[in-house]
Write a structure and sequence with these properties.
Number of strands: 11
Radius of gyration: 17 Å
CATH class of the largest domain: Alpha Beta
CATH topology of the largest domain: Rossmann fold
Order of helices and strands: EHEHEHEHEHEEEEHHHEE
Largest sheet: 5 strands, parallel
Distance between the termini: 41 Å
Number of helices: 8
Number of domains: 2
Shape: globular
CATH superfamily of the largest domain: Response regulator
Strand content: 15-25%
Helix content: 40-55%
């Protein structure tokens, strides 16, 4: 069965390029021309990945990203013409898994879509194979894909969860940003390492008692990050 991608984009030329390149590479792609229609279509749960432009009529891309992430955990990639790092960081902070900046390479876009869907399927396919992991006040249940802190459930975005699961399964091991990007995002060639730092910070804000002095996800200066049980 073909994987389905929802393109939420008001620029007909850009949307057409995205749809045509996805379809020629074996995906089904549909277009929503504004944020309101994009939200309605996405929440049907019929799509394997969402491509969201930031500058949308109706609900803008930032607000749309936040609404979608609060209700869906499928991969979400921002597509933006803006080059400012603050916009990318804001989008990632709202729950986007990755971003592509216009003008983009169609091959890069397809590669990222393929990689994110494959990573999501790998994660959901393996979630029942791992026992529950408990580290003091932190509990990770891969079978249910749920995380608890002090027995209260914490809602993580897809990549936040993948990062946490990857680290807790390899305690005391230091991984640099390049390695984490390769393992979690899967496309070294197109990586922006700021993505890793933003997701680590969001993860700390959700699981650490004091994110500024993390107990679990620690920084090893000059080397990377490690999980300390």
């Amino acid at each position: 069965m073909k994987k389905r991608v929802l393109i939420i984009e008001d620029d007909a030329a850009i949307a057409g390029i995205e749809r045509d390149n996805l379809e020629v590479n074996g995906f089904d792609a549909e277009i929503a021309w504004n944020g309101n229609d994009g939200l309605r279509m996405a929440l049907t749960g019929a799509y394997d990945l969402l491509l969201v432009d930031l500058m949308l009529p109706g609900i803008n891309g930032f607000d749309l990203c936040a609404k979608l992430r609060s209700q869906l955990d499928v991969p979400l990639i921002m597509v933006t013409a803006r080059g400012e790092d603050i916009d990318k960081i804001r989008g990632l902070g709202l729950g986007a898994d990755d971003y592509v900046t216009k003008p983009f390479s169609p091959a890069e876009l397809v590669a990222r879509v393929r990689a994110h869907i494959a990573q999501y399927e790998r994660l959901t396919g393996e979630k029942g194979k791992t026992r529950e992991l408990v580290f003091g006040r932190l509990r990770v249940n891969p079978a249910a894909r749920r995380v608890f802190v002090d027995e209260k459930e914490v809602i993580l975005a897809q990549k936040e969860y993948e990062l946490l699961l990857f680290l807790v399964q390899r305690p005391h091991t230091v991984f640099d940003k390049e390695a984490l990007y390769g393992h979690i995002w899967g496309e070294d060639r197109y990586g922006d390492l700021k993505t890793v730092a933003v997701h680590i910070q969001r993860l700390r804000e959700k699981i650490e008692a004091d994110p500024s002095s993390p107990r679990y996800v620690q920084t090893v200066w000059g080397a990377g990050y490690r999980f300390t049980p």
